[in-house]
Write a structure and sequence with these properties.
By secondary structure, the chain is an alpha+beta fold. The chain is built from 3 helices and 24 strands. Helix 2 runs antiparallel to helix 3.
């Protein structure tokens, strides 16, 4: 009886298993394939080489003073737009004002002495004509008058020096631009050469980069380059405006500047990093690259991948390693071949193994 009972349980289990398997297969068969659009990766031949660069203002300046003193007032803050000659910083100048008063007194004294010596000279000239004084006496008076005139000039030059020193206590903008940094606060002690503010010329931007010595033969002033700004996801044109003729003390790196058009400067900020494509052909720069549309990329944490359609019309997520962006496409370093079928659009969410139907 026990044997018959076990046999019956086994038969029931097998029947239930086949029933479930049959139900799963029917359910899977009833799932409609996901409609997708596909494309094959483009294979682009890229001539040229890449460099890294940075956006900078065409003209920058660190505002400092030649005078030591306390900062009385800072009239601007980072982000403020200023015009040429606008007052930026004032520094305590009581000691210089006291010296100015002293020099002014010296000028008054010297001018009075010079006026008196001039009158003496006029009188002695008349007396000499009347033979009332000797040639030596007239010569002495003449030299005395010359000495007094020189002291007046010396005192006035001292006043010019004091005024020049006072100019460094009221610091003004050297050109129109934007304040980018504030290195001191009011009440701080300003020292000669120590920066107080930083200013950049507004609206005038350029790209700076370094060219390795092995690429120097393939770059010249006037070349047009492609500039990719990753933070803005844009690519603009630039023109090589300067190229240093020397790499002395720069480790074989030649300084290069690129000018960009005014129409391309919207939203671009100083300090942004860029990739620069110099399209000139070198002996090693002609390479074939697989290019992928950015819109088909799937992001999973720090990983990037795309859905690839296999021979069974199933979608599978394949991880890829990406390189440089070029317009709306990105270079694939590994993970894909030119013959792969990449999903560009799907009518619903994809997952590994899902059946798909390709829109014609």
């Amino acid at each position: 009886m026990k044997t018959l009972k076990n046999t019956a349980l086994t038969i029931i289990g097998i029947a239930a298993f086949y029933s479930c398997s049959s139900s799963d297969k029917e359910a899977e068969a009833n799932i409609s394939p996901v409609s997708v659009e596909i494309y094959s990766p483009a294979q682009a031949t890229q001539e040229g080489f890449y460099l890294s660069g940075e956006v900078t203002a065409k003209q920058t300046a660190n505002i400092s003073t030649r005078m030591m003193g306390y900062v009385n007032k800072i009239y601007v803050k980072p982000g403020d737009k200023v015009s040429t000659g606008q007052l930026l910083v004032s520094i305590s100048s009581d000691d210089i004002l006291a010296k100015k008063a002293q020099v002014q007194a010296m000028i008054t004294e010297a001018e009075a002495a010079a006026k008196n010596s001039k009158r003496d000279l006029e009188r002695f000239t008349i007396l000499h004509a009347q033979n009332s004084v000797s040639d030596k006496e007239l010569e002495n008076v003449t030299l005395q008058n010359t000495s007094m005139d020189a002291k007046v000039q010396m005192a006035r030059q001292q006043m010019n020096e004091v005024n020049a020193m006072l100019a460094y206590t009221n610091i003004r903008a050297p050109f129109s631009g934007v304040i980018t940094q504030k290195m001191m606060d009011e009440g701080s002690m300003a020292n000669p050469g120590m920066p107080i503010l930083a200013i950049e010329q507004s609206g005038e931007l350029q790209i700076i980069a370094s060219v390795p010595e092995n690429y120097i033969p393939f770059v010249k002033v006037g070349d047009i380059a492609k500039i990719e700004i990753k933070s803005l996801d844009v690519t603009i044109d630039g023109r090589v405006s300067e190229l240093s003729p020397s790499a002395f003390r720069t480790g074989g790196q030649y300084a290069m500047k690129l000018a960009i058009e005014t129409k391309d400067k919207e939203n671009i900020r100083s300090g942004m990093y860029v990739n620069i494509l110099i399209p000139n052909e070198t002996e090693e720069s002609i390479t074939s690259k697989i290019m992928l549309d950015k819109s088909s990329i799937v992001y999973r944490d720090q990983l990037t991948g795309v859905y690839v359609i296999d021979d069974q019309s199933q979608a599978n997520l394949r991880w890829v390693r990406l390189g440089k962006n070029i317009g709306d496409q990105v270079e694939v370093l590994s993970g894909l071949s030119q013959n792969d079928k990449i999903v560009s659009k799907s009518e619903s969410k994809l997952y590994n193994g899902v059946k798909v139907s390709v829109n014609k």
